[in-house]
Amino acid sequence: MNHIKQEDIKPALVQEEPKDALSLSAATLTTNGKKEVKKEDVDVVKPLVRESDGRKSLWQGSSQYRHWMFSQEMLLKQRTHTNETAVTAIKRAYEAEETGSSNGIEFINAQEEYALVKLYVDKISALCDHFRWTEEVEATAMTYLKRFYLKNTVMDWHPKNVMLTALFLAAKTTNQPISLDAYTSAIPKTSPSDVLDLEFLVAQSLSFEFAVWPAFRAVWGIWLDLQSLPDTRPEAIKDILNAAREHVRTARLTDAEFLYPPSQIAAGAFWLASETLTEQWAKAKGLTASELEPIKEVARMIERENEPGGRINIELVRDVDRRLRLCKNPEKIPGTNAYKRKQAAAEAAANEKRAKKLAAEQQAGSMDVDVFGEKIFIGDVKQEAKPDLGFSSGDED
Amino acid sequence: MLTEDTPMDSVEKENLRRAQKYTKDAKVGEGAYAVVYKGREIATGRQVAIKKIKVGQFKDGLDMSAVREVKYLQELHHPNVIELLDVFSSKTNLNLVLEFLDGDLEMMINDKTQKFQAADMKSWMVMTLRGLEFCHRNHILHRDLKPNNLLLASDGQLKLADFGLARDFADPGLKMTCQVITRWYRPPELLFGCRYYSGGGDMWSVGCIFAELMLRTPYLPGESDVDQIKTIFRALGTPTEEEWPGYTSLPDYVSVGHFPKTPLRDLFTAASSEAINLLAKFLAYDPMRRISAREALNHAYFFQAPNATHHSRLPKCKIVSTEPEEPPTHDNAKMDLMKSLTAGPSSGRKRKSSIGHEVVSRPPALRHMDVDKHESL
C-alpha cells in the first residue's frame, strides 16, 4: 500500500493533540510558582516523557491516515494497477489451458470494476437495516469492501460474497458480533462457508487494519459546534443535522473517504445542508479560504452522486456482471483444471515445507526417542505411528 | 516452499512477505487459544514474540479477542503500550508479531528478593498511567488491567499488554458488558452490574495495582463476585449515599452489610501522604469522581520527592531460562510470559492476601467469554 506523505493531505479540522500531561503540569506549576518544582525534578522526569507521539494528532497516528489516504492520481493508479495485474494473470491462466483461448475475451476494466463494487456497497445498507445494526457497522463494512477492491479484482472474487464477509467482519470489529449461523440463515442462498472462506482474505486485504474513522461521527461533532454558534435555534438546525447525515450516507458511495479526512467529509455534508451556517461555523473555527476548498470539493462530489443516473448505472453494471461470467479467473473456480493445478502447487509447496521441517527436527535429534513406540498395530491394519505424533510444535503452516 | 514466483495474488504475496520477515525459534507458552513463540526479525536480529492464534477451531471465524487485540494494537503506538510489529495469517492461524518483553509486574511483585524503593513504584505508576492515558485519549478502554498484563521490557519500560477485552468508548446510551476486568481489579460499579461506564473502571484497576505494589500482595482478593464486594467494603468501608449517590439502585446491587471506614494510612504505613491521597482518588467509589489518567499524571505525588526512577535503573525481572531442565513451575518466567500473552488459565499459586487470609488462586481470566454479545441490545 502506498504511504502518503504528510504534506499531501492536510487534515484541516483535526484538533491539536495536547502536550504530555506530565510536562504540561511541570510547566504550569513552575510558572504559577504555587509549588516549587526544582529544575532537577523536571530533568529526572523528562527521560520518561514521550517524545515521538507528542507532535502528531490522533488522526495522523491512525492506520486510516497512514495507509488508506490517497491523492486522486494515486487512487486511479492503484485501481488500474490491480486491474491490469489481474488481467495479465487471468490471460496466463487461460493460455496455460489452451493456447489462444484468451483471445477475444472482453476483460473488465478498472472503471467497470468500480461500478460493480459500488452496487454491492449500496446493498450493505439494506442488510444492516435487516439486522438492526448501527451506522458504525454499515460505514465500516462499506469501507472494508471498498478497501478490499483496491487490492483485489472482481474477476477473482465476486463482490457478492466479499460484501457478505466484509459485513460479518465489520459487525465483529465494531463490537456487535452475531453468530455465523444466525447471519447466513437470514440471507437467502448463503452458506456459512461462503462467508468464512473469505474472512482471512478480507482481513489480509485490509492489512488487518480494522479501525475506521467514520465521517458520521464528525457530523455529530460539527452539530455540537453549530449549537454553540450565536443566533442558532435548535429547531432550525435539527433539519440541517438530518440533511447532513443523509449527505454523509451518499458520500459513502463515493471515493471521498480515500481522499479527505472524515472531518472534511462531514463539513462538506453540512455545506450542502446549509451553506450559510457552515460558513459561519468555518469562520468561528478560523478556517481560511483555502481550507474551505476541500470542503467544497466534497460537497461537489456528493452533488454529482445525487444527479440523475449519478449513483449507480444499472445498464453498465448488468453488462459488467454478464461479461464477468466469461472472464473470471479460472484458478478461482473450483472444478476447473486451472483451479486444480493451483491447489496442487500449493499442496506440493506445503508438503515440501513439512518435509523440510521434519528433516530439521530429526537433525536436531528431537525425534530420537518415540515414547509411543515405533509402530502401532490395530487388528490387521498395520498403521505406522506418525513420527511427529505428540511432538509437533503445532507449527504446520 | 512458497516463493514470490509461485503464482499468487498480490495480497497473498504481501502476507507471505510479512511471514518471511520472521523466524520462530522456540515455543515459550501455550494456552487454550494461542501458542507463543520466541522469534527473531531476520533482517535486524531483533527478538520478537509471535503469538499464533488458532482460528480454525472457531466456528464463527476470527474470534473477538483476536479481533480486538489486532484492531487496537494496530492503532496504538506509544512507548508504554506493547508494540504490534506485524500481522500475518497462515492457513488457519493468525500470527501477531509483538515486541518481546522479558517479564511483567506480577513477577516483579512476587519476587520477594527484589526490594522496591518508593521511587521505583512511582516510575511504574507513571508508565502505567502514560500508557493508559494514551489509550483513553484514543477512546479505548483496556478493561483488563492487572500486574500480569503490565509487561516489562529489558530496558525497564513498562508496557500495557493484552487488549483482548478492549473496546472503544460506547456511544452515549449504548450498553456495554459488565463482565470485564479480572475480579480482584474490578470496580464496584461493574460488580453491581453497571452497563454504562468510561475510563473509571480502568482507573480503579490502577488503584488496585498501586496498592499491590506497596503491599507486595493483592489488595482486594475476593473469592467470588459477591465476596469481592464484601472485600472492597471491608477494606474501604461501605459507601454512604453521599459518597456514591444512587449506587443502591444499580441492577445487580446486593447488600453485604455495613463495614466501618478505616483510614488507608493504617494499612499503607510506609506510604507518603501524597501517595495515600492519590490511592484514595483511584479508589473513589463514585466513578464520576474517580481521578482520570490525565489528572493522575498531574497529581502532586509525581512532583514530590523522591523523583521517579529512570526506567533503565529500575529493578530487573530475574528471568529463568526459557529452556528449563525441570518441568515448568508456575513461578518461572516462561509460564508468566505465556500467561501474559495467551488466554491460558491463571496459575493457582497460593498467596497471602492483604487482610491476612490465604488466597487460593487468582481469579480466572475472562477472555473466553463472548462477553459483548448483548452489549448493543
TrEMBL record, chain A:
Residues 122-204 form the Cyclin-like domain. Keywords: Cyclin. Pfam families: Cyclin_C_2, Cyclin_N. The keyword Ribonucleoprotein does not apply. One of its GO terms (molecular function) is cyclin-dependent protein serine/threonine kinase regulator activity. It comes from the Eukaryota. Gene3D superfamilies: Cyclin-like. InterPro entries: Cyclin-like_dom (IPR013763), Cyclin-like_sf (IPR036915), Cyclin/Ssn8 (IPR043198), Cyclin_C_2 (IPR031658), Cyclin_N (IPR006671). The keyword Cell wall biogenesis/degradation does not apply. One of its GO terms (biological process) is regulation of transcription by RNA polymerase II. PANTHER family: CYCLIN. This is Related to Cyclin H.
From TrEMBL, chain B:
GO terms for biological process: positive regulation of transcription elongation by RNA polymerase II. Keywords: ATP-binding, Kinase, Nucleotide-binding, Phosphoprotein, Serine/threonine-protein kinase, Transferase. Residues 327-337, 367-377 have a biased composition (Basic and acidic residues). ATP binds at residues 28-36, 51-52. The keyword Phosphoprotein applies. The keyword Phosphoprotein applies. GO terms for cellular component: cytoplasm; transcription factor TFIIK complex. Residues 22-302 form the Protein kinase domain. It comes from the Eukaryota. The active site is at residue 144. Residues 321-377 are annotated as: Disordered. GO terms for molecular function: ATP binding; cyclin-dependent protein serine/threonine kinase activity; RNA polymerase II CTD heptapeptide repeat kinase activity. CDD domains: STKc_CDK7. Its EC number is 2.7.11.23. Belongs to the protein kinase superfamily. CMGC Ser/Thr protein kinase family. CDC2/CDKX subfamily. This is [RNA-polymerase]-subunit kinase. It comes from Serendipita indica (strain DSM 11827).
